[in-house]
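thread: overnight batch results

M.L. [08:02]
morning all. the overnight job finished for the chain we discussed friday. pasting input first so we're all looking at the same thing
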Amino acid sequence: MKITVDEVKCCGAGQCVLIAPEVFDQRDEDGVVVLLDAEPAAEQQTAVREAASVCPAAAILLSEEA
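M.L. [08:03]
and the structure it wrote out:
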């Protein structure tokens, strides 16, 4: 799995950070998503998929290619 984020789309809701804190963080100044791990370990992928699905701005993009 490979993750990309669209910082322009991000509305700073922070759901991704709550669901997958090992993979996502937020900038202090504006709450925009910060990607900590673009290729998470297998045990984190379920949480990452959930984070992407609940993102209100659809700012998290997932690619299942290895």
